[in-house]
Design a protein that fits this description.
homodimer; 637 residues; mainly alpha; two-stranded antiparallel sheet; 30 helices; disordered N terminus; disordered C terminus; cell membrane (chains A, B); antiport (chains A, B); transmembrane (chains A, B); NaH_exchanger (chains A, B)
């Protein structure tokens, strides 16, 4: 994208074609990756995932560019003085030998980076703009993750996932921060890092950014081998939410500014940071989930899948942009937007659009992921300000390992105290093993590489990504065998079996199995009774779930098809059997309608409205007698 | 995209959020457009197409921004002197009050534009980079056009389409150039355009860029109403190829540089321009069509639709970039890449990928188109260097009208001399009417708005686009009625009926109907006998079509399934009846195999190869006896 930017912005022929050539190099690498991966998949080699392959090819290409290309750009590397300006304007007009050139503000640059940064024009051109990752490439990846969360299993394990994501990431961040601070102290002691400013907050910053796990390689193998769904969900859910936490945490730490001594603890600033974290997180969550439009509920856009898909895409992107414009984090917003879209909007879409949106984001995810990993490989040789410090790197590897252990084992122990279905030892080991680092850690690290500590962190983060993706990613299959984790499970079978036992148990309010249940049950009840009917065509009619005095509103918001659609709640959340359903609704459905007819207190909405309500319930009763068919409300209304 | 660029490149918070806000404005406009269009489609109003709607909303938003936003950017508008530099480097480092800022080269700017261009920061921010259109937004549109050309009807009318596209566009360009030159002379005469340089080549330049028709609105209605397929194909094919011609023509004219007097005719420079045109066109064509990979024929990528789709996308993009990198025009390359992909690669893809690629490009086309039209609306008020010259605008409208008439009627007359199935009068009127101007004319006009003549051309082109899209686009349905053009034709019915009569006639070498046939027949024969079998799994085995001495190569290149797949040539190009097929192959299939067995001259390829050839033909004969079934070659081999 930075390539695109360069490509489109410079008209001069030489630069112009340069841009095309660079993009071609990238395309070529990605094509190579695809072909290699096809070869591997065809032969069922599972030790190299496409992201690993992309990284490898990037690495090779970086090596070639590094040592084959020559410095050629004349005139850069020189700093010009300008006394007339007080600050950098966004556009600068410069008169050079009677030709006026327009320059666009790019960035502030540190004095110590001026020389290295300007050395090799080719390397410079191969460098993406760092903010591209967080603003262009990551959002589709994160959205896709949110959009493809296995809903049922996700909500069932919600408590555990949230604990891993919030508490676990916080633990990981602090543990890494502390260990790194120890190493930094030691490095200063032995005389490295002379003249650097390296505070505890910097260590925490590193801890936060490297805490974002990205087990895409592992998850791909899990998916392929049909590993136990609970393990998959725990790991996937943790990694998705943990990204959001790590991103907001990194941001909160980077704006933590104690008033006086940066090394001393400043309670006010600390609490302000905590407040920032909570505020940003909650705000982004709110914006993201509010974009799950019920627009799609009342428009019959489903006749035009292209319009529907377009609307879906634009709204999701708007969620990102709104959060950014409001000074929050767009990525978190887009994640929750994805989750809510999957949960509500998805059900309003036409089948055609459901597939289109899924495939579109799958494709964008695929491309973006491979571009990032390919670029990581490239960056190892083409990034010009690497600082390899063996001690720091060693420290980071130790810290990451220890922090992962401090995250998984204690939290699993705590969770097992409350969970009906325990997280077994081998699952814990697998989760420990699956703490890969990837795109998010890299994107956070590359965002700011101005100061030397940040450059050292970037280099270290890159090495950690390489190591974990190749070693742990490649070792997933042997590890699964070694830990005797069962594979080849059909998730639908699993679901049906459990649903059968659970639909009985849950409605009887007896939890017999599987649950960290209370959170799930509260959520499920609220969601099923109120949110689903308001936002989608599914769920019980609101007239039956809301209190009496809300009836006019309820009838307005309830989709006509809700009265009938009940039984085939497309969502596979629950497959209720008919007895239960009948029972469930005979008890509740009788209350509102007669009450309304008798009291007449809600007649302000007019007769048509009441009629529609009646009709709805009438049809619903009809539906109970003929559960297979679905009455067309539109034709009879 | 320029928005994206701004968005990602500037870190400073204020600018950063500004970028998000601008993109949000765009998203908002597009969402509005989608909802409006849904409303219109739902009520079957056909007078406003989504592109027209996008333009309208863009216009309104432009008006708001124009008069509601205030100038705020301090420091821009001032030109700084720099004596130390001799030319503009790509990156500039400037020391401002001891902080070093990096600036990126954006463009050269004319002296007379310095003041207006810098007035309003908001307007400036709303301006896309002009090269975005040709490099980012148009390629998917053009590719999609090529990819969705109705193949059979397209090739059947190939001669007519090529004539309209090449000869017609050339006529249009010259006629407009001449008329505009007259108007310019008149304007100079009455004292307008003082001090401007306005040569005949500039007029021709305008003629070339405004000759690119874009009847997207009309075609959408045609598609919806199922208008006569031949008319649709003629119009669609003309508009698609004519874009390519206009783009290359514009480029050729812009680099036409006579040595001495720019007003005098310079034969050498003229022929160089013609040579340029032919070279660029042929080169782009070659690059574009060479990316129709038979990579996909031999890899069994179809088991992994995501990889396949990714590969398809990357290869198509590579076609564009390769052409650009080679100094040719990427758009033309991408167009022919689309056509060839549809003709060959498409048949090698798995059904899943066929749908994915179609939907992906459909979606990209939809978004890009609406962004461009929305931006056009915006540009009418936010572009800061408009030059409205009533006489020039009037002249341009007249010229466009006259040129379209000089294009369609004489060429149709000529074509009808040769065509079996004449182009009727009402079709000609409809084609005359459908000469809308759109995205390509706009993109070509906005690419260079430095000099005053170019600014005047841009303004005029914009107005022509507005007028034609709204007036002619909106008037399509009444016009169809008025011209009594039949609608509601099922293209498949049409196809079957004609195919039945034609498959008999064509193979007997008697053309009874419809054709400007000789070009088509030559092409079809070559394509069916050689290209299809080489590039796809379809078509007759190469062993039967190539001369004897090519047998080893032929057997290598022929897909095993070609021997059997024959009959169900998925392409609907021809549905041959079995007698013909049998006859066709009994005559040709006997020759190569015995010849090879007797002479032994081609045994260098080994026995397996021969065996496979035999097996293939054996199975093929089997297939003739049981035409309904399709033998699985893989299982028996």
């Amino acid at each position: 994208m930075e390539e695109l930017k360069k490509y489109v912005s410079v008209k001069d022929d030489q630069f112009y074609h340069q841009g095309a050539v660079e993009l071609l190099v990238f395309n070529f690498l990605l094509i190579l990756t695809i072909l290699t991966i096809w070869l591997f998949k065809n032969h069922r080699f599972r030790f190299l995932h496409e992201t690993g392959g992309a990284m490898l090819y990037g690495l090779v290409m970086g090596l070639i560019i590094r040592y084959a290309a020559k410095a050629s750009d004349v005139g850069s590397g020189t700093v010009y003085e300008c006394e007339k300006l007080k600050s950098g304007p966004s556009n600068l007009l410069i008169n050079i030998t009677n030709q006026i050139y327009e320059y666009q503000y790019k960035r502030e640059i540190s004095h110590h980076n001026v020389n290295d940064a300007q050395g090799n024009a080719m390397l410079q051109k191969m460098a993406f703009d760092p903010s591209i990752f967080l603003n262009i490439l990551l959002p589709p990846i994160i959205f896709h993750a949110g959009y493809s969360l296995k809903k049922r299993h996700f909500f069932r394990n919600l408590g555990s996932i949230l604990t891993y994501a919030f508490l676990g990431t916080a633990i990981s961040c602090i543990v890494i921060g502390l260990i790194m601070y120890g190493f930094v102290k030691a490095m200063i002691h032995i005389g490295q890092l002379k003249g650097w400013e390296f505070h505890f907050t910097d260590c925490l910053f590193f801890g936060a950014l490297i805490s974002a796990t990205d087990p895409v390689t592992v998850l791909a193998i899990f998916h392929e081998l049909h590993v136990d769904t609970d393990l998959y969900t725990l790991l996937f859910g943790e990694s998705v939410l943990n990204d959001a936490v790590a991103i907001v945490l990194t941001y909160s730490i980077s704006i933590y500014s104690p008033k006086e001594n940066p090394n001393a603890f400043d309670a006010a600033a600390f609490f302000q940071s905590v407040g920032n974290f909570l505020g940003i997180f909650a705000g982004s969550f709110a914006i993201g989930s509010s974009y799950a439009v019920h627009l799609t509920k009342f428009t019959k856009l489903c006749e035009f899948p292209m319009l529907e898909t377009g609307l879906f895409f634009l709204l999701s992107w708007s969620a990102f942009l709104s959060a950014e414009a409001a000074g929050l984090t767009g990525i978190v917003a887009v994640l929750f937007c994805g989750v809510t879209q999957a949960h509500y909007t998805y059900n309003n879409l036409s089948p055609d659009s459901q597939m289109r949106t899924k495939q579109l984001f799958e494709f964008m995810n695929f491309l973006a992921e491979n571009v990032i990993f390919c670029y990581m490989g490239l960056a190892l040789f083409t990034f010009q300000n690497h600082i390899f410090n063996p001690l720091f790197i060693f420290g980071a590897f130790v810290a990451v390992f220890v922090a992962r252990a401090c995250n998984i084992y204690p939290i699993s122990f705590l969770l097992n105290l409350g969970r009906k279905q325990k997280i077994p030892r081998n699952f814990q080991h697998m989760m420990m093993f699956s703490g890969l680092r990837g795109a998010i850690a890299f994107s956070l690290a590359i965002r700011d590489t101005e100061s030397q500590p940040k450059q050292m962190m970037f280099t270290t983060a890159l090495l950690i990504v390489f190591f974990t993706v190749w070693v742990f990613g490649g070792g997933t299959t042997p590890m699964l065998t070694w830990l005797q984790i069962r594979v080849g499970i059909d998730p639908d079978e699993d679901l049906k079996a459990e649903t059968a036992s659970q639909s009985a148990s849950n409605l009887d309010k007896n939890t017999t199995k599987t649950e960290s249940a209370w959170l799930f049950r509260i959520w499920y009840g609220f969601d099923h009774k109120y949110l689903k009917p308001i936002l989608t065509h599914a769920g019980p009619p609101l007239t039956t779930t809301l209190p009496e005095w809300c009836n006019p509103l309820a009838r307005l918001l309830t989709s006509p098809s809700a009265y009938g659609d009940q039984m085939k709640d497309g969502n596979t959340d629950y497959i209720l059997n008919h007895d239960e359903l009948a029972e469930n609704f005979e008890s509740s459905a009788h209350i509102p309608v007669p009450a309304q007819d008798q009291t007449g207190s809600t007649q302000s909405t007019g007769k048509e409205d009441i009629h529609e309500g009646d009709l709805g319930l009438g049809a619903y009763k009809l539906q109970l007698e003929h559960p297979a068919g679905q009455p067309k409300m539109n034709s009879s209304a």
